[in-house]
Amino acid sequence: MKQTILSIAGKPGLFKLVSRSKMNLIVESIDEKHKRVPAFATDRITSLADIAMYTDAEDVPLMTILASIRDKEEGKPVSINFKKCPSSELREYFSQILPDFDRDRVHDSDIKKLFQWYNILVNNGITDFEEELQPTEGDNVDDRKDM
Question: What are phi and psi of 96, to 5 degrees?
Answer without folding.
Answer: -75, -25
